[in-house]
Design a protein that fits this description.
Length: 130
């Protein structure tokens, strides 16, 4: 259903380090980095798509975050949600919601929320029962 998602960054090196640390526990691996074009992408270890891409905006303007926009990554286990959240905060993220159950979504929704160093809102969640 989704080919790729792209988030803007003002600092590609910082974003590559940040997302490399956060996405590794999810089995998401770097597919490319092109410093000249100012972007990098990750993919599932066992597939070519969907891609998660960070990069400088093509129009040359500063990146900005949207109100109500968020990217959510799915984890197979709740412990991976915890691990990703810890890694994100250690790498410079701002906490937007500690790991925990969110029964208002559904009984088994376990998620954590943070903003990356550029201010983009990210969720890591698990839909499986304990």
């Amino acid at each position: 259903m989704i080919s790729h998602v792209h988030l803007g960054t003002a600092d590609l090196d910082r974003a590559v380090q940040f997302y490399g640390a956060v996405l590794e526990p999810l089995g998401i691996v770097q597919k490319f980095i092109d410093a000249d074009r100012g972007w990098a992408g990750w993919k599932p270890a066992d597939a070519d798509r969907p891609l998660f891409v960070v990069g400088r905006p093509l129009d040359g303007a500063a990146p900005g975050v949207g109100n109500g926009q968020m990217v959510a990554f799915q984890a197979a286990e709740r412990r991976i949600v915890d691990q990703c959240h810890r890694r994100a905060l250690a790498a410079g993220a701002t906490d937007e919601g500690a790991p925990g159950l969110r029964p208002e979504y559904h009984a088994d929704f376990y998620g954590a929320y943070f903003r990356d160093p550029d201010g983009n809102k990210v969720c890591v969640c698990c839909h499986a029962p304990e």
